[in-house]
Specification:
single chain; alpha/beta; 53% helix
């Protein structure tokens, strides 16, 4: 059947990649993409939904809305300070989550729907369902306090009281789309934003077998991967200049090449001590359930073969470089 044939093409591409037959591997990726485009699970998903949401968020989250509530407004609430770990898919969020999970003072989540549930609660209390910024603009401070309490209630229900008593790391890669919403509700939050060479991100996404959804449907084509990457990262470049939370951009290449220095910076942000046992995160990962395609990657010691992997496929980037060049430059990968 077509779905199995598409998956087989992806597997063959991985085999050809290991055999250093890169042009043949990319041809097999294109074949998998063509097969995927005929599947009802993909053709029936709205490919513009994600881009519409991003456009609304960029238009609606201006400096005025993002500074409407400050840390001082909630200083007496006695709630924990959350940390959000996000970025683009295949940028190293799972690696960082596994490293942080080893630290005894931190509690990390795998992919979850906490922020989605929070947007649903926002829609419930405002009656506005088609624009998060518009809904937030109608809220008063007590509405925001309600949303903050709702979030921590759901954290405790989902993960137990331990998640409240430790520093909670909410890891969902594409929560980057909701960075404005998160920043408005939690101005005191910490944000870890995973970065990786845009070209490596694109080739890695193109080689993955994702479950079709509004968040992944565009990743089943080469042009779609680049378009989605550009939309998500354009939003981040805009928001990072005006959000209140303290953020740290965490480069995948630095985590590989200078592990301790990189994670000392992370722990400084989170106000926890350096723990040398985090170096052996891969041993810890082997005993955990990991709900992303990165499971095999993070359950073995660090390796650098995925750094600058795009060079092997350089000749195939010409069609999408116009989408990527701005971000290659902005993030210092030129």
């Amino acid at each position: 059947d077509t779905a199995s044939a598409a998956r087989a093409c992806l597997e063959l591409a991985a085999v050809l990649d290991k055999q250093k037959e890169y042009d043949s591997a990319f041809a097999m990726l294109n074949k998998a993409a063509a097969l995927h485009q005929t599947l009802p699970g993909i053709t029936n998903v709205n490919k513009d939904h994600l881009f519409d949401s991003i456009a609304k968020n960029k238009a609606g989250f201006d400096k005025k809305l993002l500074s409407r509530w400050t840390v001082n407004d909630f200083s007496k609430d006695a709630l924990p300070i959350p940390c959000f770990l996000f970025g683009f898919l295949r940028s190293g969020t799972t690696l960082t989550e596994q490293v942080l999970a080893v630290h005894p003072d931190l509690f990390t989540s795998d992919e979850n729907e906490l922020i989605f549930e929070l947007t649903q609660e926002l829609a419930k209390i405002t009656g506005i369902t088609n624009s998060i910024p518009e809904a937030l603009s109608t809220c008063d401070r007590e509405n925001i306090r309600h949303l903050r309490r709702f979030y921590w209630q759901r954290v405790q229900e989902e993960y137990g009281v331990e998640a409240i008593n430790k520093k909670f790391i909410d890891k969902v890669a594409l929560n980057s789309i909701d960075a404005g919403f998160i920043s408005a509700i939690f101005p005191e939050a910490n944000i870890l934003f995973a970065l990786r060479d845009p070209r490596d991100v694109c080739i890695s996404c193109y080689m993955q077998s994702f479950t079709p959804s509004t968040a992944t449907v565009n990743l089943f084509s080469w042009q779609g991967v680049a378009r989605q990457y550009a939309a998500v990262m354009d939003l981040w470049l805009y928001l990072r200049e005006i959000i209140q939370p303290t953020y740290l951009e965490l480069r995948y290449e630095e985590t590989i090449n200078d592990f301790e220095t990189t994670y000392r910076r992370v722990f400084n942000l989170l106000k926890v001590d350096w723990r040398p046992e985090v170096t052996y995160f891969h041993q810890h990962a082997q005993g955990r359930y990991i709900h992303t395609p990165s499971f095999a990657d993070v359950s073995r010691p660090l390796y650098n073969t995925a750094v600058a992997r795009w060079h092997r496929y350089e000749s195939h980037f010409d069609p999408i470089l116009p989408e990527l060049n701005r971000f290659i430059e902005a993030f210092g990968y030129k």
